[in-house]
Amino acid sequence: MDVTDTRTILINDDVPDLPAIAERMATTTARLEADFSKVESKIHRFPGSLRGIGGDNDRYIVPSVVAIGPYHHGAPHLHKMEEVKLAAAYYLCGASGRSTAEVYEKVRSVAGAARGCYDADDPAVVGLGDAEFAAMMFLDGCFLLQYMVAGGDVEHDATALVLQNRMTLSTGPSIQKDIFLLENQIPWLVLDALAEFMFVDVGGFVTGMGDKFLPFPRKARKPEDGRCCRRGMRCGCIPTALAKTTRPSDEESRGVVGSTEQHKPPPPHLLGLLRFTQVGCMPDNKKNYTGVSSSWSSSAVELAEMGVVLTPRTEVWFGDMSLRRRCLYGELSLSPVFLSDVTACWLVNMAALEASTAGAARDTDGFVVSSYLSVLAMLMDRKEDVHELRRRGLVHGALSNKQALGFFKGLGQHLRFGRRYFTALEEIDSYKRHRSVRIKAYKFVYNYCKFIAAFLSVTGVLIGIFKTLLSLKRHC
């Protein structure tokens, strides 16, 4: 056999099995497309690319008091709350007038679909049998609904008092933080199944939680498209019977979508509903900015030097921002935000949710909250910038200037920039290009205003002395 023949044999032996590869290509693509079609309804792990914004010891990722769903189920530090879940389920079944078996069977009937909302290959899910998974959905769902009414008007029997104490008084804001973590969710369909036995105004509850972002109560206002009343609350914008404020009729109950907008799918989980309450009522022209990318960036102090005044917006949706050109100055308006450890945690997890579901909505890039946080991070280079934002009423809360600066700069290093972020930069860039002369004049006045004020003050004193001397001379 000559060299040519040997080479030919080697090449032929090295040729892959093309039909097998083609089949793998087709099946893998079909699986990926199927997974992507469910990306909005899935319950995701916190994205690895965003782990840097998870806080010290992952405090914005890992629950501190209660595990909801399988991802943190069984963690030793969360064991005590499992007893409270049992009490919550006992109270819900008793208050409904139905047997525990009947309520559990209702949840078990949707447990298979609920399991499909988690990553089937995740070790936390693989390790749970079907019966154990159904029991977990039952207890976690009962716990969430009972927590939502724990502070309300319930009969003050021993069970109610135990629940109120263990759920609200002894845990502080920890549960509020935990139930809106990305990795600590159960599918909406579980809560929807339990709605047959216990009506809870879930939409109203989540609305109240979302209002913690606001430094002050925001007045009701009807948005431009007339879809809803107050930040999407207590109306057809929250699209399930659970979100209504009055007990649904028999025809509307058991998971039927509200009559106002029946085409709206239900939220995937409580975190999804929290984000929806903040941006869901934003008109499409506000969501879908199409600005040009710009390399410009400016801190709050730099904008002040340019004559751009920062003002808080009062729109009914969260995360709004725009720059207007006034006669003598510019005005950059943003939604104000109240920062606490709880609201900071929610902001991180809404941004993580956006990153996990990116591209699912074709009409928008989906990074509404992320864009807003990125703009705030851009405005903060030093503690003086945070002070300027506080002075202008854009940032509120108990966090110090140093803590707020560290939080937002940490976010800015990891978040993806959405269209609205680039549009905000383009508006600033355009302002700089079209008002360069005016900016120079304003910058001079801004930087030397103290000197000018001191000079005018001294001049005024000298003029006063001169007038006094002149008056004395006339009387001599």
Automatic annotation (TrEMBL):
Pfam families: DUF247
Entry-linked InterPro entries: DUF247_pln (IPR004158)
Transmembrane segments: 451-470
Keyword Transmembrane helix: yes
Species for this entry: Miscanthus lutarioriparius
Protein name: Uncharacterized protein
UniProt keyword terms in alphabetical order: Membrane, Transmembrane, Transmembrane helix
Claim: Transmembrane helix is one of the keywords in the record: yes
Positions of region (Disordered): 246-268
Superkingdom of origin organism: Eukaryota
